C-alpha cells in the first residue's frame, strides 16, 4: 500500500483530487466537477480513486499528515500523558491546544475539518459515479473511509453536515448540522456494508488496505463511543460486544506477541487492522517524529538516532512523570518500546558529549542515523496505527464488563498484560483495570483524550485538570472545562452559513 505517490498524480490530472489552496473558505461539501462522471469508467480508474481517498490521511500535499495534526497535536497533546516543559516560537497551535486556549481560527483545527470532508467528498464521488452491485470491494472501501471520516468528525466537533452524494456549494452552505444519531446511523450502515463486501484482510501488494476485520473493529469502537459521553446510549454496549466478539478469534490470530515489534518497519501491516501508510524518501513520509520535542531550526537533537540534518518542529513535549515512574516500577515492556528518558548530544565521545534528560515519546521515530532515504523532518517511513489488536481486545473486555460479564473479559485483559510483562489479574477485571491498560498500551497513539471523554464529562475534566495543575506551569495552560471536550467549528466555516451555531463555550 506504500504506492500513493504513483496514483495521486494520475488522479490529479483527471481533475478528481484537489490539494489544499489558500482560499479563505474551506468547502466542507463534496463539490461536483465536470470530469468526475467520465473518470470512473473502468476498474483501473476506480482503484486509483480509492487509493486517492486513502492518501488524504497522508501528507496530502502538505507539510504534515493527518496523524500528526489530529492524533498528536489535537489529541495526545491535549491528554494527561504529556506536558509542556518549555515553549518555543514554533507551532503556536500546538501550544493553544495543550493550554486549552484553542480558538475557531486555528489553522490546525481548520485543516483537520477540511481533510475529513475531503475524504467524504471523494468517497461520495466514487459511490455516485459507480453503480450499486458493481465494483463491490472499491465501493466498500469508499464507504469504510466515509464512515471513518464521519466518526472522527462527530466525536471531535459534534454534529456536522451530513452529505452522501456530490452537492454544489450553493446547496452545501444551507445544510444544517445533522443530529449525532443521524450521523451515527450512516456510519453504522457504511461499516456494515464494508464488512459484508470485503475480505478479512488484504496482503501482498494490497497490504494496508482495509478489510472486514477493520470494518468491524471500527464499528465496535463506534458503538463504544456512542455508549459513552455525550450520547450515553447504554444499548450500544451490547452491540459492541456482539460485533467485537464476532471478530475476536480472527484478531487473536493476528495478535503480535512482542510489543516492541508492533512498531517496526519489518512488521508493518502484519498486526494492524487499519493504519496510515507511509514511505520515506519521496515526500510521502510521516511528519509525526518531527514533533517529539523541540530543537533549533537545524541540526539533529538526536544525533545517535537520526541523520545529521534532522530537525524538530514541535514544542518541548514530555511524558507525564507519574506515568514514567509507574511503568518503570512495574518493569512494563511497553515503556522502552514507547518512551526514551533522554538522548546523547553527539555521536562521538570526543571531545565531550552529554546525556540530555527528557522523557519523550519515540515510538514512531526510526532510530537509524545511517538511513539515506529519509530526507527531511516530515519524511519518516513508519506507518501510523489507527486500529490494532489491543483496541479490539480492550474494547471487547470493556463491553463485557459493562454487560455484567467481567469473568469473560479477564482473558483479554490478561493477554495484553502478559505481553507487557505484567502479572495476570488476581480476579475479574474492573473498568479501572481496563482504563489503566489503555493508558499505557496506546501512549503516543492519540487515543487517551477520546477515552477520557467517552468515560464521562466529570472524569475527563477532573483528570485533565489534575494533569494541568500538577506541573504548576503557565506552559500547561488553564484548567479545561466542558467546552474543551470538543474542538471548535472552524471560523471560516461559520462565515459562509447562517444556520450553524458555534460549539459551546467558543
What does this structure look like?
The strands form three sheets. A two-stranded antiparallel ribbon has the order 1-3. Strands 2-6 form a two-stranded antiparallel ribbon. The two termini are 40 Å apart. It has 506 residues and is mainly alpha-helical. α18 packs across α19. Helix content is 43%, strand content 6%. It has a domain at 291-364.
How do you describe this structure in short?
Helix content is 43%, strand content 6%. It has helices spanning 4-13, 36-39, 43-55, 66-73, 92-98, 107-129, 136-157, 169-172, 180-197, 212-227, 236-245, 248-253, 321-329, 333-338, 389-402, 406-419, 431-441, 448-454, 457-470, 491-494, and strands at 82-84, 272-276, 317-319, 339-344, 355-361, 384-388.
